[in-house]
Amino acid sequence: MDYQNTPSRSRRGPFDQPEPELGAIPEGSGRTNGLGIGAPLARIEDIRLVTGNGRFTNNVTVPGQLRGYVLRSPLGHARIRSIDVSAALEVPGLVAILTGEDYAKDGIGNMPCVSIPPGIKGGPYVPTPFPALALDTVRCVGAEVAFVIAETAAAAVDAAERIVVDYEPLPVAPTLEAAIAPGAPLVWPDAPGNRCFYHELGDQAACDAAFAGAAHVVSARIRNQRVAGNPLEPRTCIGRYDAADGRFHLTSSTANPHRLRLLLSEHIFRVPAHRVHVVAGDVGGGFGTKGGLYPEEILVLWAAWRVGRPVKWVCERSEAFLADFNGRDQIADAEMALDAEGRVLGLRVEVNHNLGSALGPSTAHPPLVGTRMLSGVYAFPAMHVKINGIFTNSRTLTTYRGAGRPEATLIVERMLDLAAGKVGLDPVEIRRRNFIDPGQMPYRTAVGETYDCGEFEAVTDAALTLADWNGFEERRAATEARGLLRGRGLSCYIEVCATLSDRMEVRFDSSGCVSILAGTFSYGQGHETTYAQMVHDWLGIPLEQIRFVQGDTDIIATGRGSFGSRSMTVGGSALRKACDNLIGMGARLAALMLDVEPEALDFVDGSYVWTAGDRRSVPLTEVAKTSFAWKGSAAYKGGPPKPIPADLWSGLEGVGHFSANPQNYPNGCYVAEVEVDPETGQVRVDRIAGVDDVGTVINPLLLEGQVIGGCAQALGQALLEAIVHDAEGQVLSGAFTDYGMPRAEDFPRMTLANRPVPTRTNPLGVKGGAETGTIGLPPAILGAVLDALGPLGVRDLTMPLTPMKVWAALDAARRTETAKETG
User: Which domains does the chain have, with CATH numbers?
Assistant: First the structure.
């Protein structure tokens, strides 16, 4: 993605793009040298990372550390009769074996669920005890049964293999389909029908009336499969307990260190927060998977306290398929009512969302937030949504890139495609007839969400142009000449981004360099670059004099981390306020140095200037150095020294806070074209075009990388990825040999652009940009495959669109057609 009004950069092959118009960008000195806001600056942190100088958790070795290993349940549901560790105690190097009984005796707390609000319509939810080690019952394959601590990882594994657990198998409901079936085994005895919670959105009476007067009704069951996050860096954590000051120290590959400190202090160890210290260094991806507390982070701290030495746990790649919390996994039964001209009158949706076997911190977030977006970018006058949180005998579910919004977008876009076929409209035309018009903004949807801005039809038109929509027939003819099928699909999306508040700090040192102390947390997003660009833009400080600090709860006062595309909105806006506060603080000292009143100074290009007088000026960096003056006096260019007030005699700093209330709504349109081999069912995505509205663009190069990465994960889910359980709850996709991760050869040319409509919900005009492709692209790929197969009689498919699934659908369609012909 390149953008007008930004400096040129080297071209990068298949991602060269036309340059759409750039929206409003906050002015500042950085705009003049091509390094500030809006500049496609390459990531500063990459030099460290690609030269092997990153500091990931597995690079950390603490003197005297032991290694931990988790013994996991091989059964999907069972009662633990006994655990015999006698043979394991004979392994050389073994230090300790901890079980659920030890955990309970020590009074360690349960994993909390903090994602279910008190206002859910169905009344109280069913809470689940979630200790870091199972006490008497395991409810999924992979559940933690014992924690083995030894001098080496090999010794820990050897000891774990000698532990004998006597299990009494219990009935299993490992999938959504099994758990919601009549008479299904109960995961928790106090959750009838395996339902944890129920919630409603919209107006049932208004929706019923809309359906009563409809000319057309379409219905469908829409499946969004379970997927694994699979970050490049597997989870790793090191626990240490300092008996001298009674503090727990955790080093973890987490994406949210301050959240871990809060949960560990308040819910697990029940100690003051200052007694829990969490550090996260470089983190190799997260995508929501690393956003919350995990049992292993509790275990290493508890074990370190127990044995008096640091304990390290490293997740193996295959173990991650059992240990990591998964994402998606939803069944939606939807009905759409339309008038004779194809305008939607009402939408009914009942969602069954898999929560897994126990509630983790963020388990309920995807269904409760995602369903808020079921109106999409359309003016649906009536809606009624039912949400069921369902327990299954499977690993706990959590947020995964998009967290509920990809599921909602798939429902809306699939229903519109079905409606277009029912009414006899082109997929583009049915969307045009239902778009929210910019003149209707702010627009309150039928489920209570208020969009502040958006130009949805214009974004769609830009995507159609970028995709060469009108040239499709020529490309289809060329494809068919090679014996293949070609189809195209269209998807429009909107998502809700940014939540909660955050704190950012900007602090000068005595040399005139500045440090950014970030409450957000970067695990691949490039904050070290984008925040530096902002500070460079606003304060005029050279990039090489800006330091970025994050991830240490002893250094950063507080923070919310990074999730839900919140960092540029919440963190960036807080950073703006911090810089403004610092400028205001420095103006008082600059006025002393220039012998004028602070109100008479303007801040221009990194200097305080007496614009109403003789234009005397002093750079901010000189002001910052003077604030550290040893004797507390200020003088500039030979002027007489003046005493510095006490509050200005210890360095310049600024603190800013920002709360994302209201939130913002990125949106866009994606078009995909596919080729399908009818003989093998193989699907190849041939072209992807996408236009996003993420408001003000801070760094177009980094935004491009985010969108491409999101598209990669979307393609993986659409075509390849799925966590699969058998009837007993065994994970059949427990390694990369079974779980279909996309490879470089799977990706086509991506033609991507941005059409920004800056929001007024924050001072930067920024909307979230990290999840756009993940949310918008899957329905376009599904629509494209069904468009290609439609002439052969295939009307419906579910993701992932594997060759076997596509071939089976084609074979069934051929058999049906043959049966018709033969009577």
Answer: 57-170+232-285+290-323 (3.90.1170.50), 171-231+324-451 (3.30.365.10), 499-659 (3.30.365.10)
